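Subject: sequence -> structure tokens, single chain

Hey, anyone have a minute? Need the predicted structure for the following. Not urgent.
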Amino acid sequence: MDYAPFAKPLYVMLKPVGAHCNLACKYCYYLEKSKLYDDVPRHIISDEMLERFIKEYIGAQTMPEVLFTWHGGETLMRPLSFYKKAMQLQRQYAEGRRIDNCIQTNGTLLTDEWCEFFKENGWLVGVSIDGPQEFHDEYRRTRQGQPSFHKVMQGIRLLNKHGVEWNALAVVNDFNADYPLDFYHFFKEINCRYIQFTPIVERILPHKDGRTLANLMDEEAPMADFSVTPAQWGNFLCTIFDEWVRNDVAEYYIQIFDSTLANWVGAQPGVCTYGASCGHAAVMEFNGDVYSCDHFVFPEYRLGNIREQSLVSMLYGEKQTAFGNIKQDLLPTQCKECKWRFACNGECPKNRFAKTSTGERGLNYLCEGYRRFFSHVAPYMDFMAERLKEKQAPALIMDYLKDHKL
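Reply:
Had a minute. Here:
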């Protein structure tokens, strides 16, 4: 079979402990994935599977740099010795390539020892934190129902103490979305320079196999109460953008603002959510099962198992190609004719379950919010795009806005 060799990078996130976690966040879409493997007593990747993945993943790359992304569940539920072994295997199979690692954690299990390891080996750490204490503890609690904010902040202080590079993954939900400036100011107060805002959009629909979250093919499933509304999302983004564009360009990096500017100048947005296509960011569970995307860890999106099929055959195969084409192939007419299509591209397929004004399926649930955001930021993006074309810094917009309006 011709896999159109390597028309796009091969990228697979690895879940070394599956969906297991020491927290039980109300909105987490990972936790229930453990039900897919109820017949397996221990949801941890074996040494044999780890070596198989590392060897094959490095061998499948066509670029001189290879990025490993460790995800969960809670990744730090594996001991430090596990990641030291992983790095040993990376060096063994690197064959001259540069190896980078990033890891996502809820931050509650961080210690001096962990932070020393991350600093010494140049790991990028992503920390899940939903703003100040009142916002964070609303949904991010332990299995015993206890708040987690103070433990997360203790972990962040340790990262800063050891000079570890880290960024924040902040979930925007029905509660904290109503306080965008309080939310943003918190991250500035803790000197978090890189922030990814993720709108939580989930629907609840019980399945026979024990699942409760709906997937793209489930129709008429009701929204989960913690989901952000389209109006909230639009207001949240516009409010924070107004402060950022006047004070913080090139000082604080907000992923969606950076991605929007990239699309404005015709560059790659750096995140599949706003790209023209998807399907190049798969996920592998602890047992070697590979799924099309970490948002689509459902039986119907399983590509195969690394014991039986190669990563190349799965990621460049017909099933994954068809999955990647969904983003464009299933755009409703309203999206195809939208002036902001270039900036949005329909956003993530997992959120495209709403109907257009004419009743056509496939509209993004958050469309109203995105349309407001793109309309609001258009003159500012035009200005910054022009600066880039002139090989000038987009941050010049801050000086311009002191005396002018756009």
